[in-house]
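For reproducibility, we list the full input for the iron/sulfur cluster complex.
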Amino acid sequence: MVGTSTLLTACRKSEKEINNVEPRPNRELGEMTLRTNPNTGDKVSLLGFGMMRLPVVAGGTARENPDSPIDQEAVNQMVDYALAHGVNYFDTSPAYCQGMSEQSTGIALSRHPRNSYFISTKLSNFAPETWSLEESKAMFFRSLQYLKTEYLDYLLLHAAGMSGGDKDGMGAFYARYIDNGLLDWLVEQKKKGKIRNLGFSYHGDIHVFDMLLRWHDEGKYHWDFVLIELNYLDWNYADEINPRNTDASYLYAELEKRGIPATIMEPLLGGRLAKQPASILREMKQMDINATPAEWAFRYAGTPKGVLTVLSGMTYMEHLQENCATYSPLRPITKEEDEMLMRLADKLSAMKSVPCTACNYCMPCPYGLNIPVIFTYYNNCLSEEMDDEKPEGSSESEFRKARKRWLIGYDRTVPRIRQADHCIGCNHCLSHCPQRIDIPKEMQRIDRFMEQIKQQM
Ligand code: SF4
Ligand code: SF4
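The corresponding predicted structure, in tokenized form, follows.
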């Protein structure tokens, strides 16, 4: 299987050439920005360590090498560095890293005093066989055991609003948390001190999000925090990129007016905002010559005052170091910078890329397609196409060469029998996608795109 980072270079000229922004030279680290949880007074680091992309011994993450064990030594080193540099929020789930994340997180964190960090994990009872109260309780107790802790600082109902089994978002939510009495049982656990903050992460059906906030208003259930997707592209364009999604500006405003702290996922939109077409990068560099695309995205996600922490799934020490630097301390986005990012978001949304965050939840495809790799490859081609808007300098033959390179790169990155044209539209993947991407339809679009290029050749 080819990893995302491999295919990025396969499609594009070179990472260095396109995103040739080095992190700030000799940057002095100040204090990590902390935000206060109004419910508990917790002083939470603005950078939260997402434990969903942990490194594995064979290299890369469990996504690329699912049979390889987690590289615990590397995880320990990153956790130690994070704690030493003010990061105190660690977010995991029974579903991450082929089910290995909680154990690895528990091993790394338990080497430190329990009061030096906050543990966040989730009730990830996605599969219908885990919907019973008994199975869900067992999942909860396993989390405590794996994380080597008596209590959880932050517990989330995982992906409220996502469809599951044969149920839509609302049906799956009721089956997972309400009809079985699980949510009431979790409220009891909070009273007993096993959970300090109870919240939910939202994906999918907006009616579920609105209903849960209505329950909060009515005093039926109290939400201490909510995890939402927020970045400068999703702020105004989530629903244009994918009509089934909701703009982050709406989600954030609904939380802010109730004083519910927002925790943030996908600040980089599955890594897409960390790699930018050259034309976008040029504008960013005009504003700040040394800022990386990732730095812009993290500053944007961390600027709203109601944000408690911004999660980043970090695999390598360099990512952790760069992200620590960005928030030590945070330089809030100015009005002028905000205008620039909104302008860039206008351009990026016009690319019509696939809003895949490479989470891998849709895998495996029974017909062997490598769904996230195909989508990432296609998105990278679109980015490159965007830079071809200026063909005064680029001759027809250069243009053809670029297209040929895409075709060759596609075959190298995705074996032919796993390419988009092999999707039979079985819909097996559909209910698993938290971004609610119409995967078979997108496969058809990508197939047409590649066919068109072949015709042009
Ligand atoms: S719809 Fe296509 S991509 Fe999805 S599981 Fe079926 S064959 Fe695979
Ligand atoms: S589940 Fe959706 S977002 Fe995740 S990898 Fe598959 S297509 Fe992409």
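The chain is about 45% helix and 10% strand. The chain has two domains: 31-349, 371-456. Both points were considered when choosing residues for closer inspection.
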